[in-house]
Design goal:
121 residues
Length: 121
Amino acid sequence: MRKVLNFVNDNKKIIIVVILIIVLVGTIYFINKAAEGKSTVTTASTADKSATEVKLTGILSSIEGVGATDVMINEGENGVLGVVIVCEGANNIMTRNDILNAVSTALNIDKNLIAIYSMNN
């Protein structure tokens, strides 16, 4: 026991540095694990969307007045069956008209297959 105490007293600085390194490595490990969990959630929600939905969301979000946008496209064997769009700017009639024209043109579908709703704030 006396040898252990002498070793600790003689090597205090080294022991403190080793403990700090272990704590630092542990902290980095847990931070990376937390970041991986967050990116997995984001990827999962994006993975549920088709490439067309992602592209259309980007296009609509870039139109003036539309704001944040979410798009769902219902597709069947013979093409698009319907489109649901939820966005911040849906309360403005001009913005709704711009959305309707853009989606109809982009997907080459009739406007009656497009539903546009206002997003909760």
